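Intended use. Records such as the Transposase entry shown here are meant for training and evaluating sequence-to-structure methods. They are not intended to support clinical decisions.
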Amino acid sequence: MRKTIEEVETNMAYRWFLGYGFHDKVPHFSTFGKNYERRFKDTDLFEQIFYRILMTAANKKLLSAEHVFVDSTHVKASANKRKFEKKIVRKETIERVFADAKEKHGMRWTTLRGLKKLSMQAMLTFAAINLKKMANWTWQGPKMA
């Protein structure tokens, strides 16, 4: 969150997208963790935010079911005879997304403990990444490879 807030403080495009003026104060990065602990811990607010972003992307026709990416980090390996038939679809894209999350959004290290807190942080981080992509696509159009 710290890196994301730093980006918002220095990048006018992010400020505009979030509705902040040039002289408006951006919340401290710890505000999100404190709000989670005090106000949103037992709610489904983050799922609602993620769902809303997903629906906005769908309404603007920014989603495609042509390629589906799944993070299979914690999926056990299967001893399937046909395992070599499965194709890895654009592995570089997935790795780039996680690399960006680590480098630009502070996902390399965490001070949070517990699956629920880490899930909340990951969901907010990737929601922020997706919002940035949607903003760029809205301004420039999607880059087709």
